[in-house]
Amino acid sequence: MIEVTERAAKKISKHLLHRGKGMGIRVGVKTTGCSGLAYILEYVDNTNDGDNVIETHGVNIIVDQKSLVYVKGLTVDYVRKGLNEGFEFINPNEKARCGCGESFTV
Question: Do residues 57 and 2 lie in contact, with contact meaning Cβ atoms separated by under 8 Å?
Fold first, then answer.
């Protein structure tokens, strides 16, 4: 369904530990940007009806039903490129990304 690299899972775990609470991270999409959709990551303290919980590398990834169609097959990695670092989303469903790389379309 969704793959999270070990490097990304370690970073998520570190963020949750620093926050001091939370059962995992929600991976989803929202409507925005010039291409239509953008990825979201947010802390989850409690799941909602219809949420899918995926345990991988010791962390819980939560995906809502609406987002599942867009993120099925997604790989979440944590990368460092020069002075920049952050989560990277590799999605086989993406058809195009906007020029700034913030939004995508399927």
Answer: no
What is the residue extent of each domain of the chain?
2-99
Whole-model pTM: value is 0.84
Query: pLDDT digit string (tens) for 57-98?
Result: 999 999 999 999 889 999 999 999 888 899 999 888 777 666
Select from 16, 96, 106, 97 the least CA-distant residue to 61.
Answer: 16
Topology at the third CATH level for domain 2-99:
Hypothetical Protein Aq_1857; Chain: A; (2.60.300)
